[in-house]
Automatic annotation (TrEMBL):
Alphabetized InterPro entries for the sequence: MmgE/PrpD_sf, MmgE/PrpD_sf_1, MmgE/PrpD_sf_2, MmgE_PrpD, MmgE_PrpD_C, MmgE_PrpD_N
MmgE/PrpD C-terminal domain span: 275-433
Domain spans labelled MmgE/PrpD N-terminal: 15-245
Domain of life, source organism: Bacteria
Pfam families per UniProt: MmgE_PrpD_C (PF19305), MmgE_PrpD_N (PF03972)
Annotated GO MF terms: lyase activity
Protein name: Mmge/prpd
Family: Belongs to the PrpD family.
Amino acid sequence: MGRLTVFTETMAEEVLKSTPTDNQAALREAKRGILDFLASAFAGREDAGIAKLLHAIEEEGGNPITPLIAQGKMANRRQAALVNGFMGHALDYDDVHSDVRGHPSSVILPVLFALASGREISGKSFLDAYIIGVEVMARLGQAIGTGSYLKGWHNTSLLGGVAATFAGARLLGFTVAQMRNAVGIAVSQASGLRVQFGTEMKPLHAGLAAQQAVQSIEWTQQDFHGTEMALDSAIGFLHVYAGKEADEAVRAALTEGWGKSWRIAEPGLWFKRNPFCSAASHGADAALALAQLNLDAEAIEKIDIVFPPGGDAALIHKRPKTGEQGRFSIEYVVALALLGQPFTLGNFGSAAVSADAEKLMRKMFRSNDADHKPDPQAIPKGRFTIVRIALADGSVHSREVCVPKGSPQAPLSDAELESKWRESAPDLEVAERILQAIRGLENSSLRELEELL
Protein backbone atom coordinates (compact mmCIF):
# COMPACT_ATOMS: atom_id res chain seq x y z
CA MET A 1 0.00 0.00 0.00
CA GLY A 2 1.57 3.29 -1.08
CA ARG A 3 1.71 6.48 0.94
CA LEU A 4 -0.90 8.15 -1.23
CA THR A 5 -3.67 5.74 -0.28
CA VAL A 6 -2.77 4.93 3.32
CA PHE A 7 -5.27 7.27 5.00
CA THR A 8 -8.30 6.44 2.91
CA GLU A 9 -7.61 2.71 2.94
CA THR A 10 -6.77 2.50 6.63
CA MET A 11 -9.90 4.43 7.55
CA ALA A 12 -12.03 2.22 5.31
CA GLU A 13 -10.60 -0.89 6.96
CA GLU A 14 -11.30 0.48 10.44
CA VAL A 15 -14.82 1.56 9.47
CA LEU A 16 -15.65 -1.93 8.24
CA LYS A 17 -14.29 -3.91 11.17
CA SER A 18 -15.40 -1.67 14.05
CA THR A 19 -18.38 -2.56 16.26
CA PRO A 20 -18.88 0.62 18.29
CA THR A 21 -22.21 -0.44 19.80
CA ASP A 22 -20.16 -2.79 22.00
CA ASN A 23 -19.19 0.40 23.84
CA GLN A 24 -22.07 1.27 26.16
CA ALA A 25 -21.24 4.97 26.37
CA ALA A 26 -21.21 5.25 22.58
CA LEU A 27 -24.47 3.29 22.31
CA ARG A 28 -26.17 5.53 24.85
CA GLU A 29 -25.06 8.75 23.16
CA ALA A 30 -26.04 7.45 19.73
CA LYS A 31 -29.60 6.87 20.89
CA ARG A 32 -29.63 10.33 22.47
CA GLY A 33 -28.29 11.73 19.19
CA ILE A 34 -31.09 10.15 17.17
CA LEU A 35 -33.70 11.51 19.57
CA ASP A 36 -32.18 15.00 19.46
CA PHE A 37 -32.01 14.96 15.66
CA LEU A 38 -35.68 13.99 15.44
CA ALA A 39 -36.59 16.70 17.97
CA SER A 40 -34.76 19.26 15.83
CA ALA A 41 -36.34 17.99 12.61
CA PHE A 42 -39.87 17.92 14.00
CA ALA A 43 -39.37 21.43 15.41
CA GLY A 44 -38.31 22.59 11.94
CA ARG A 45 -41.06 20.79 10.04
CA GLU A 46 -42.98 24.00 9.23
CA ASP A 47 -39.98 26.11 8.23
CA ALA A 48 -40.73 28.06 5.05
CA GLY A 49 -37.87 26.37 3.25
CA ILE A 50 -39.51 22.96 3.61
CA ALA A 51 -42.46 23.96 1.43
CA LYS A 52 -40.06 25.20 -1.24
CA LEU A 53 -38.12 21.94 -1.23
CA LEU A 54 -41.30 19.86 -1.29
CA HIS A 55 -42.49 21.76 -4.35
CA ALA A 56 -39.15 21.21 -6.06
CA ILE A 57 -39.05 17.46 -5.48
CA GLU A 58 -42.68 17.05 -6.52
CA GLU A 59 -41.72 18.53 -9.88
CA GLU A 60 -38.74 16.16 -10.11
CA GLY A 61 -40.73 13.02 -9.39
CA GLY A 62 -38.97 9.74 -8.67
CA ASN A 63 -39.39 6.52 -6.70
CA PRO A 64 -40.92 7.50 -3.33
CA ILE A 65 -39.61 4.96 -0.82
CA THR A 66 -38.12 7.08 1.99
CA PRO A 67 -40.21 8.94 4.61
CA LEU A 68 -39.97 12.72 4.78
CA ILE A 69 -39.85 13.29 8.51
CA ALA A 70 -43.04 14.75 10.00
CA GLN A 71 -44.49 15.43 6.54
CA GLY A 72 -46.62 12.34 5.95
CA LYS A 73 -44.97 12.02 2.53
CA MET A 74 -42.36 9.90 0.80
CA ALA A 75 -39.61 10.71 -1.68
CA ASN A 76 -36.72 8.98 -3.38
CA ARG A 77 -33.56 8.46 -1.37
CA ARG A 78 -31.66 11.50 -2.61
CA GLN A 79 -34.65 13.81 -2.23
CA ALA A 80 -35.38 12.52 1.28
CA ALA A 81 -31.77 13.04 2.34
CA LEU A 82 -31.97 16.62 1.05
CA VAL A 83 -35.26 17.48 2.77
CA ASN A 84 -34.56 15.66 6.04
CA GLY A 85 -31.08 17.16 6.27
CA PHE A 86 -32.48 20.65 5.74
CA MET A 87 -35.24 20.01 8.26
CA GLY A 88 -32.86 18.81 10.96
CA HIS A 89 -30.70 21.91 10.63
CA ALA A 90 -33.42 24.44 9.75
CA LEU A 91 -33.58 26.06 13.20
CA ASP A 92 -29.95 25.49 14.25
CA TYR A 93 -31.43 23.44 17.07
CA ASP A 94 -29.45 20.29 16.24
CA ASP A 95 -26.37 18.82 17.87
CA VAL A 96 -22.80 20.06 17.55
CA HIS A 97 -19.39 18.42 17.99
CA SER A 98 -16.43 20.53 19.07
CA ASP A 99 -13.92 18.51 17.01
CA VAL A 100 -16.07 19.09 13.92
CA ARG A 101 -16.96 22.70 14.63
CA GLY A 102 -20.22 21.79 12.97
CA HIS A 103 -23.33 19.63 13.07
CA PRO A 104 -22.85 15.89 12.47
CA SER A 105 -26.27 14.32 12.89
CA SER A 106 -28.25 16.46 10.44
CA VAL A 107 -26.05 15.16 7.65
CA ILE A 108 -25.28 11.60 8.76
CA LEU A 109 -28.71 10.46 9.96
CA PRO A 110 -30.69 11.57 6.87
CA VAL A 111 -28.22 9.59 4.76
CA LEU A 112 -28.61 6.47 6.87
CA PHE A 113 -32.41 6.72 6.96
CA ALA A 114 -32.45 7.16 3.17
CA LEU A 115 -30.15 4.22 2.46
CA ALA A 116 -31.99 1.97 4.92
CA SER A 117 -35.36 2.51 3.22
CA GLY A 118 -36.61 -0.57 1.43
CA ARG A 119 -33.86 -2.70 2.96
CA GLU A 120 -33.79 -5.00 5.97
CA ILE A 121 -31.48 -3.09 8.29
CA SER A 122 -31.11 -3.93 11.96
CA GLY A 123 -31.17 -1.20 14.56
CA LYS A 124 -27.71 -2.29 15.70
CA SER A 125 -26.28 -1.90 12.19
CA PHE A 126 -27.86 1.55 11.93
CA LEU A 127 -26.40 2.61 15.27
CA ASP A 128 -22.96 1.27 14.37
CA ALA A 129 -22.98 3.24 11.11
CA TYR A 130 -24.12 6.42 12.87
CA ILE A 131 -21.42 6.22 15.54
CA ILE A 132 -18.82 5.61 12.83
CA GLY A 133 -20.06 8.58 10.82
CA VAL A 134 -19.62 10.90 13.80
CA GLU A 135 -16.18 9.37 14.41
CA VAL A 136 -15.04 10.04 10.85
CA MET A 137 -16.42 13.57 10.83
CA ALA A 138 -14.68 14.39 14.13
CA ARG A 139 -11.40 12.89 12.94
CA LEU A 140 -11.58 14.88 9.71
CA GLY A 141 -12.23 17.99 11.77
CA GLN A 142 -9.13 17.34 13.85
CA ALA A 143 -7.07 16.59 10.76
CA ILE A 144 -7.90 19.81 8.91
CA GLY A 145 -7.74 22.00 12.03
CA THR A 146 -9.27 25.47 12.22
CA GLY A 147 -7.79 26.94 9.05
CA SER A 148 -10.57 26.02 6.64
CA TYR A 149 -13.29 27.23 9.00
CA LEU A 150 -11.62 30.57 9.58
CA LYS A 151 -11.24 30.99 5.82
CA GLY A 152 -15.00 30.71 5.49
CA TRP A 153 -15.76 27.03 4.84
CA HIS A 154 -18.78 25.53 6.61
CA ASN A 155 -17.62 22.28 8.19
CA THR A 156 -21.11 20.81 8.46
CA SER A 157 -21.24 20.40 4.70
CA LEU A 158 -17.52 20.38 3.92
CA LEU A 159 -16.87 17.38 6.18
CA GLY A 160 -20.39 16.02 6.56
CA GLY A 161 -20.88 14.59 3.10
CA VAL A 162 -17.56 12.75 3.24
CA ALA A 163 -18.22 11.36 6.74
CA ALA A 164 -21.77 10.35 5.82
CA THR A 165 -20.42 8.52 2.77
CA PHE A 166 -18.18 6.43 5.02
CA ALA A 167 -21.18 5.78 7.29
CA GLY A 168 -23.51 4.87 4.43
CA ALA A 169 -20.92 2.57 2.89
CA ARG A 170 -20.59 0.80 6.23
CA LEU A 171 -24.37 0.44 6.54
CA LEU A 172 -24.61 -1.25 3.15
CA GLY A 173 -21.59 -3.50 3.68
CA PHE A 174 -19.34 -2.03 1.01
CA THR A 175 -15.89 -3.50 0.47
CA VAL A 176 -12.79 -1.42 1.19
CA ALA A 177 -12.42 -0.73 -2.54
CA GLN A 178 -16.06 0.35 -2.88
CA MET A 179 -15.78 2.61 0.15
CA ARG A 180 -12.63 4.27 -1.14
CA ASN A 181 -14.34 4.84 -4.47
CA ALA A 182 -17.46 6.34 -2.87
CA VAL A 183 -15.32 8.70 -0.80
CA GLY A 184 -13.48 9.64 -3.97
CA ILE A 185 -16.79 10.73 -5.48
CA ALA A 186 -17.88 12.51 -2.30
CA VAL A 187 -14.84 14.76 -1.94
CA SER A 188 -15.52 16.44 -5.28
CA GLN A 189 -18.94 17.53 -4.00
CA ALA A 190 -17.76 18.92 -0.65
CA SER A 191 -18.51 22.62 -0.26
CA GLY A 192 -20.44 25.24 1.73
CA LEU A 193 -19.53 28.78 2.83
CA ARG A 194 -20.16 30.43 6.20
CA VAL A 195 -21.21 33.63 4.48
CA GLN A 196 -24.60 31.89 4.15
CA PHE A 197 -25.19 31.83 7.94
CA GLY A 198 -28.52 33.42 8.74
CA THR A 199 -30.09 32.44 5.41
CA GLU A 200 -31.96 29.39 4.15
CA MET A 201 -28.77 28.23 2.46
CA LYS A 202 -27.17 27.44 5.81
CA PRO A 203 -29.50 24.51 6.60
CA LEU A 204 -29.58 23.62 2.92
CA HIS A 205 -25.85 22.91 3.27
CA ALA A 206 -26.74 19.98 5.54
CA GLY A 207 -29.35 18.72 3.09
CA LEU A 208 -27.04 19.04 0.09
CA ALA A 209 -24.23 17.22 1.89
CA ALA A 210 -26.62 14.40 2.79
CA GLN A 211 -27.93 14.21 -0.77
CA GLN A 212 -24.38 14.14 -2.14
CA ALA A 213 -23.43 11.28 0.18
CA VAL A 214 -26.38 9.23 -1.06
CA GLN A 215 -25.36 10.05 -4.64
CA SER A 216 -21.80 8.95 -3.95
CA ILE A 217 -23.05 5.61 -2.60
CA GLU A 218 -25.49 5.06 -5.47
CA TRP A 219 -23.02 6.04 -8.17
CA THR A 220 -20.52 3.59 -6.72
CA GLN A 221 -23.19 0.90 -6.91
CA GLN A 222 -23.49 1.76 -10.61
CA ASP A 223 -19.73 1.22 -11.00
CA PHE A 224 -18.98 4.93 -11.46
CA HIS A 225 -15.32 5.52 -10.60
CA GLY A 226 -13.65 8.20 -8.50
CA THR A 227 -10.12 8.49 -7.15
CA GLU A 228 -8.80 6.14 -4.49
CA MET A 229 -6.56 8.93 -3.17
CA ALA A 230 -9.33 11.24 -2.00
CA LEU A 231 -7.86 12.15 1.37
CA ASP A 232 -4.20 11.43 0.75
CA SER A 233 -3.05 13.08 -2.45
CA ALA A 234 -1.03 16.28 -2.44
CA ILE A 235 -3.87 17.68 -4.58
CA GLY A 236 -6.59 15.93 -2.57
CA PHE A 237 -9.14 16.88 0.06
CA LEU A 238 -6.89 17.66 3.03
CA HIS A 239 -4.41 19.73 1.07
CA VAL A 240 -6.92 21.70 -1.00
CA TYR A 241 -9.31 22.64 1.80
CA ALA A 242 -6.90 23.03 4.69
CA GLY A 243 -3.43 23.29 3.18
CA LYS A 244 -2.52 20.09 5.02
CA GLU A 245 0.21 17.80 3.83
CA ALA A 246 0.11 14.11 4.75
CA ASP A 247 2.15 14.63 7.93
CA GLU A 248 2.32 12.68 11.18
CA ALA A 249 -0.32 14.78 12.95
CA VAL A 250 -2.80 14.21 10.13
CA ARG A 251 -2.02 10.50 10.07
CA ALA A 252 -2.61 10.22 13.81
CA ALA A 253 -5.88 12.15 13.68
CA LEU A 254 -7.29 9.93 10.94
CA THR A 255 -5.95 6.49 11.73
CA GLU A 256 -4.79 6.04 15.32
CA GLY A 257 -6.79 4.73 18.27
CA TRP A 258 -9.84 3.40 16.48
CA GLY A 259 -12.15 1.69 18.96
CA LYS A 260 -10.36 2.79 22.14
CA SER A 261 -13.16 5.29 22.65
CA TRP A 262 -15.71 6.89 20.36
CA ARG A 263 -15.96 10.61 19.74
CA ILE A 264 -19.75 10.50 19.93
CA ALA A 265 -19.15 9.94 23.67
CA GLU A 266 -15.66 11.41 24.21
CA PRO A 267 -15.66 14.39 24.04
CA GLY A 268 -19.28 13.87 22.98
CA LEU A 269 -22.08 15.69 21.21
CA TRP A 270 -23.61 18.94 22.39
CA PHE A 271 -27.40 18.84 22.62
CA LYS A 272 -28.88 22.31 22.51
CA ARG A 273 -31.63 23.66 24.70
CA ASN A 274 -31.88 26.81 22.56
CA PRO A 275 -32.30 27.34 18.79
CA PHE A 276 -29.18 29.34 18.01
CA CYS A 277 -25.54 28.78 17.13
CA SER A 278 -23.58 26.96 19.83
CA ALA A 279 -20.86 29.63 19.64
CA ALA A 280 -23.34 31.91 21.41
CA SER A 281 -24.06 29.41 24.19
CA HIS A 282 -21.32 30.63 26.53
CA GLY A 283 -22.45 34.24 26.18
CA ALA A 284 -26.10 33.27 26.53
CA ASP A 285 -25.47 31.60 29.88
CA ALA A 286 -23.42 34.59 31.04
CA ALA A 287 -26.18 37.00 30.00
CA LEU A 288 -28.86 34.90 31.69
CA ALA A 289 -26.86 35.05 34.91
CA LEU A 290 -26.60 38.84 34.62
CA ALA A 291 -30.32 39.07 33.87
CA GLN A 292 -30.94 37.78 37.39
CA LEU A 293 -29.66 41.15 38.64
CA ASN A 294 -32.71 42.84 37.06
CA LEU A 295 -30.64 45.64 35.55
CA ASP A 296 -32.49 48.53 33.92
CA ALA A 297 -31.74 48.46 30.19
CA GLU A 298 -31.97 52.27 30.08
CA ALA A 299 -29.21 52.51 32.70
CA ILE A 300 -26.78 50.41 30.68
CA GLU A 301 -23.99 52.50 29.17
CA LYS A 302 -21.95 49.77 27.50
CA ILE A 303 -21.77 46.00 27.14
CA ASP A 304 -18.44 44.39 26.34
CA ILE A 305 -18.47 40.82 25.03
CA VAL A 306 -15.08 39.14 25.08
CA PHE A 307 -14.04 35.96 23.22
CA PRO A 308 -10.77 34.17 22.61
CA PRO A 309 -9.36 34.75 19.11
CA GLY A 310 -11.68 33.06 16.62
CA GLY A 311 -14.25 32.24 19.29
CA ASP A 312 -16.91 34.35 17.61
CA ALA A 313 -16.11 33.33 14.02
CA ALA A 314 -19.48 31.66 13.53
CA LEU A 315 -21.38 34.66 14.90
CA ILE A 316 -21.24 36.68 11.72
CA HIS A 317 -24.14 39.08 12.41
CA LYS A 318 -23.32 41.95 14.77
CA ARG A 319 -26.45 43.92 13.93
CA PRO A 320 -29.00 41.33 12.78
CA LYS A 321 -32.18 42.52 11.11
CA THR A 322 -34.24 39.37 11.74
CA GLY A 323 -34.46 36.64 14.34
CA GLU A 324 -33.13 34.22 11.73
CA GLN A 325 -29.94 36.25 11.45
CA GLY A 326 -30.03 36.50 15.24
CA ARG A 327 -29.25 32.79 15.51
CA PHE A 328 -25.72 33.82 14.55
CA SER A 329 -25.46 36.98 16.65
CA ILE A 330 -24.14 37.11 20.21
CA GLU A 331 -25.49 40.66 20.42
CA TYR A 332 -29.06 39.54 19.73
CA VAL A 333 -28.84 36.59 22.13
CA VAL A 334 -27.48 38.80 24.93
CA ALA A 335 -30.14 41.44 24.22
CA LEU A 336 -32.95 38.90 24.51
CA ALA A 337 -31.57 37.61 27.80
CA LEU A 338 -31.17 41.05 29.35
CA LEU A 339 -34.61 42.16 28.16
CA GLY A 340 -36.22 39.10 29.73
CA GLN A 341 -37.26 37.69 26.36
CA PRO A 342 -37.24 33.87 26.13
CA PHE A 343 -35.10 31.92 23.68
CA THR A 344 -38.15 30.58 21.88
CA LEU A 345 -38.34 29.46 18.28
CA GLY A 346 -40.52 32.49 17.55
CA ASN A 347 -37.80 34.91 18.61
CA PHE A 348 -35.42 33.33 16.09
CA GLY A 349 -37.71 33.36 13.07
CA SER A 350 -38.14 35.63 10.08
CA ALA A 351 -39.70 38.53 12.00
CA ALA A 352 -37.75 41.76 12.37
CA VAL A 353 -35.67 42.35 15.48
CA SER A 354 -37.58 44.41 18.05
CA ALA A 355 -36.78 48.08 18.57
CA ASP A 356 -35.77 47.40 22.19
CA ALA A 357 -33.32 44.70 21.15
CA GLU A 358 -31.92 46.88 18.38
CA LYS A 359 -31.40 49.76 20.81
CA LEU A 360 -29.60 47.56 23.32
CA MET A 361 -27.39 45.96 20.66
CA ARG A 362 -26.05 49.39 19.74
CA LYS A 363 -24.42 49.47 23.18
CA MET A 364 -22.53 46.21 22.60
CA PHE A 365 -18.92 45.85 21.55
CA ARG A 366 -17.00 42.67 20.81
CA SER A 367 -13.32 42.02 21.44
CA ASN A 368 -10.91 39.10 21.42
CA ASP A 369 -8.46 38.49 24.25
CA ALA A 370 -5.56 36.14 23.51
CA ASP A 371 -4.07 36.51 27.00
CA HIS A 372 -7.09 35.55 29.08
CA LYS A 373 -6.78 32.12 30.75
CA PRO A 374 -10.11 30.30 30.86
CA ASP A 375 -11.08 27.35 33.01
CA PRO A 376 -8.99 24.27 32.07
CA GLN A 377 -12.28 22.39 31.56
CA ALA A 378 -13.48 24.90 28.94
CA ILE A 379 -15.20 23.43 25.91
CA PRO A 380 -14.15 23.71 23.19
CA LYS A 381 -10.64 23.85 24.62
CA GLY A 382 -9.67 27.43 25.45
CA ARG A 383 -13.15 28.78 24.78
CA PHE A 384 -14.85 31.36 26.99
CA THR A 385 -17.18 34.32 26.75
CA ILE A 386 -17.21 37.25 29.14
CA VAL A 387 -20.20 39.60 29.23
CA ARG A 388 -19.37 42.84 31.06
CA ILE A 389 -22.02 45.50 31.67
CA ALA A 390 -21.15 49.09 32.63
CA LEU A 391 -23.98 51.14 34.15
CA ALA A 392 -24.50 54.89 34.21
CA ASP A 393 -23.77 54.99 37.96
CA GLY A 394 -20.25 53.69 37.33
CA SER A 395 -20.84 50.14 38.52
CA VAL A 396 -19.73 47.17 36.43
CA HIS A 397 -21.22 43.68 36.42
CA SER A 398 -19.49 40.78 34.71
CA ARG A 399 -19.95 37.05 34.16
CA GLU A 400 -17.68 34.53 32.43
CA VAL A 401 -18.81 31.14 31.13
CA CYS A 402 -16.43 28.44 29.88
CA VAL A 403 -18.71 25.39 30.09
CA PRO A 404 -22.22 26.14 28.81
CA LYS A 405 -25.30 24.07 29.50
CA GLY A 406 -25.78 21.38 26.87
CA SER A 407 -22.07 20.84 26.29
CA PRO A 408 -20.64 17.41 27.17
CA GLN A 409 -19.30 18.73 30.49
CA ALA A 410 -22.73 20.12 31.42
CA PRO A 411 -25.03 17.87 29.40
CA LEU A 412 -28.76 17.89 29.08
CA SER A 413 -30.13 15.10 31.23
CA ASP A 414 -32.16 12.33 29.64
CA ALA A 415 -35.26 13.97 31.08
CA GLU A 416 -34.33 17.36 29.58
CA LEU A 417 -33.63 15.81 26.19
CA GLU A 418 -36.89 13.89 26.25
CA SER A 419 -38.68 17.11 27.17
CA LYS A 420 -37.15 18.80 24.11
CA TRP A 421 -38.46 15.92 22.02
CA ARG A 422 -41.99 16.07 23.44
CA GLU A 423 -42.13 19.83 22.94
CA SER A 424 -41.17 19.38 19.28
CA ALA A 425 -43.45 16.46 18.42
CA PRO A 426 -47.03 17.31 17.35
CA ASP A 427 -48.56 14.08 18.67
CA LEU A 428 -47.67 12.90 22.17
CA GLU A 429 -48.83 9.34 21.55
CA VAL A 430 -46.58 8.98 18.50
CA ALA A 431 -43.82 10.78 20.40
CA GLU A 432 -43.89 8.13 23.11
CA ARG A 433 -43.85 5.31 20.57
CA ILE A 434 -40.85 6.84 18.81
CA LEU A 435 -39.11 7.29 22.15
CA GLN A 436 -39.65 3.64 23.02
CA ALA A 437 -38.45 2.54 19.58
CA ILE A 438 -35.21 4.48 20.03
CA ARG A 439 -34.64 3.12 23.54
CA GLY A 440 -34.67 -0.46 22.25
CA LEU A 441 -33.24 0.18 18.80
CA GLU A 442 -30.17 -2.04 19.17
CA ASN A 443 -32.45 -5.05 19.68
CA SER A 444 -34.95 -4.43 16.89
CA SER A 445 -35.32 -3.71 13.19
CA LEU A 446 -34.94 -0.13 12.02
CA ARG A 447 -38.24 -0.54 10.21
CA GLU A 448 -40.16 -0.16 13.49
CA LEU A 449 -38.77 3.35 13.95
CA GLU A 450 -38.91 4.25 10.28
CA GLU A 451 -42.63 3.51 10.05
CA LEU A 452 -43.32 6.00 12.86
CA LEU A 453 -41.65 8.88 11.02
